[in-house]
Design goal:
Layout: H1 20-28, H2 36-44, H3 60-70
Length: 101
């Protein structure tokens, strides 16, 4: 019988303001960490916390919250943006009549 590898526990950085190299490893993993610089620049436009110049890193709890919001998970699972296909549809799935002006 082959051994089944247990899933790795969620990784956390070593401090509240990890440097970009550590953050890249935690968020993307060691194999994809090189992509963090470009990805972070793009995600900053959507609200990823910037590097705090005084602390020398991004505030980890805010980064984690941003990623949870970005992927609609955790406490943010119900805060999905309403897309065009959902306009005028009640939560039950029934169409809602719009008033004409």
């Amino acid at each position: 019988m082959g051994s089944v590898r247990a899933s790795a526990p969620a990784q956390e950085p070593s401090c509240l303001y990890p440097d970009e190299a550590e953050l890249a490893r935690v968020v993307l993993g060691p194999k994809r960490a090189k992509a963090w610089g470009g990805l972070a620049a793009v995600l900053e436009r959507s609200g990823l916390p910037k590097v705090d110049p005084m602390m020398g890193g991004r505030y980890w709890p805010a980064v984690r919250e941003f990623l949870d919001r970005y992927h609609h998970t955790g406490d943010h699972a119900s805060s999905r943006r309403q897309g065009r296909s959902e306009e005028g549809v009640h939560a039950s799935g029934a169409r809602v009549a719009r008033a004409r002006s």
